[in-house]
Amino acid sequence: MLNIILASKSRVRKKILDDHNIKNNVIASNIDEEPIKESLLKEGASPEIISKNLAELKANKVSQKFNNSLILGADSVIDLSGELISKPESRVEALNILKKLNGKKHSLISSVCMSKNGSMIWNYTDKAYLTMKHFSEDELMLYLSKISDENLYAYNVYQIEGEGKALFSSIDGDEDTIMGLPIKKIKEYLKLQK
């Protein structure tokens, strides 16, 4: 299989690629996502468009520096009834996010984009639906206390592959999509590139 460059410092995405024997190097795009999200929201962009645009921006930025290399950009957003929820930057923020999601259904959208020579050549967006059980604030704080800072800021407020699965009464969607990388579609695409 081809060697790709992952335009993300997400350890989860790197691990998914490694687990599927996709050779990859990591070169983070270091794009400041928040102003881009805010601008797109003001224009009325849907969560799917925002996720796709961010994945494309990340891939294209790294792609401009590496001619003829395949660059994989990825982005995930949480959509709670039209409100876009970003990764927490503090434990207080993480608790507030869990309180917002508490007892409610939301969608998680993951987009991936392949770029070459500075332009997008392929993209895919997938969506999963998660319904969180209802918890007391103490239970949410106990849950957060079990997660290290490193994992909390790297993987968002719920770790679907670990402790976080217990937060949900229903999960409808692909687990790899929820973790930020719909790997089946990426593998299908890469097989066509041989």
CATH level 1 class label: Alpha Beta
The number of domains is 1
Straight-line distance between termini: 7 Å
Structural class: alpha/beta
Low-confidence segments, ≥5 residues, pLDDT <50?
Answer: none
* Rounded mean pLDDT score: 90
Portion of residues in beta strands equals 25-35%
Helix content: 25-40%
Order of helices and strands: EHEHHEEHEEHHEHH
Shape: globular
Number of strands: 7
Gyration radius (Cα, Å) is 17 Å
Question: Major sheet, described briefly?
Answer: 7 strands, mixed
CATH architecture: Alpha-Beta Complex
How many helices? 8
| CATH topology name | Maf protein
Please tell me about this protein's structure.
- With 194 residues, this protein is an alpha/beta fold.
- The protein has one domain: Maf protein (Alpha-Beta Complex), CATH 3.90.950.
- The protein contains eight helices and seven strands, in the order βαβααββαββααβαα.
- Strands 1, 2, 3, 4, 5, 6 and 7 form a seven-stranded mixed sheet that branches.
- Helix 2 packs across helix 3 and helix 4 crosses helix 5.
- The longest helix is centred in the first third of the chain and has 17 residues.
- The protein is globular.
- The protein starts with a strand and ends with a helix.
- The model has no long low-confidence stretch (mean pLDDT 90).
